[in-house]
Amino acid sequence: MTTQQPSVSISMPGSRGHASCPAGASACGRRLILSIHDVSPKFVDEVDRLLHLAAPIVGARSCAMLVVPDHWGEAPLVPGSAFARHLRRWADEGVEMILHGWSHRDDSRHDGAADRWRARMMTAGEGEFLGLGREEAKRRLDMGRTLLEQLLGRPVTGFVAPAWLYGEGARAALADSGFEMAEDHMRVWNPVTGRVMGRGPVISWASRSRARIASSLLFARIAPVLLARQQLVRIALHPGDVHVPALVRSIERTLRHFAKDREVVRYADLH
Ligand SMILES: [Zn+2]
Asked: Considering only CA atoms, which of 161, 233, 179 is closest in space to residue 202?
């Protein structure tokens, strides 16, 4: 585990704080949520760079961080560590903290052909919660929440499954554990009540292959037109994005476009 410390200050100039509405915005009913995925000691440099990229545009306090308790079983969050202190400081300063799986690695056996295909093709083996049974899903949810709450000193009520993939067991376990927010590619919902809190595709970028880079650049390019009438727009950033300059430029352009006339909100504001 690296001990390097993120250098970004969350209270940097240009930060607008959360739930901010741009001056002169004509439609404050239209909203933007920004999230940074796979926050883990393993990706401390990348998370730092993503914060630097986003903070001057949307305000650093406006983002959500999706935290992985032990990424691939290689990067445990350790109470009292430097990274744990950073997480707590970011949370104190307004970053919304969300549980994002336990290991992020799919180690389930998938029985259905469709699930096997989804697990292999869509996620490169990272859809941890796709094949879990209800009991095992609940065990990981409760374990992750307990650890995060201990580190942060505050309740954690949101969960996003790795690769946005949920099996039946995961959906049932989320309700059992009382999580009040979850999201997939197309919607945000309350697992306890079933109420849908927001709809519309997530804009995200893929850095795994040239073909995926090209298709995510294309989607980001047409998203301003495609999503112009969407009440809620979600933008998700991943650690791998920062290693591809074309993706960094696309992210910056996309954030500037959607932040200029949308209220930047938190998932908690959707309740
Ligand atoms: Zn992830």
From this structure: 233
Condensed to tens digits (0 to 9), the pLDDT of residues 20-40 reads 555 444 455 899 999 999 999
In a domain, 266, yes or no: yes
CA of 23 to the centre of ligand 1 (A): 33
Rounded to the nearest angstrom, the distance between the alpha carbon of 123 and the centre of ligand 1 is: 9
40: in domain: yes
The total number of structural domains that make up the chain: 1
Domain holding 263: CATH number? 3.20.20.370
pLDDT tens digits, residue range 239-261?
Answer: 999 999 999 999 999 999 999 99
Distance 100 CA to ligand 1 centre (A): 7
Which pTM value belongs to this model?
A: 0.86
Encoded tokens for 146: 């307990």
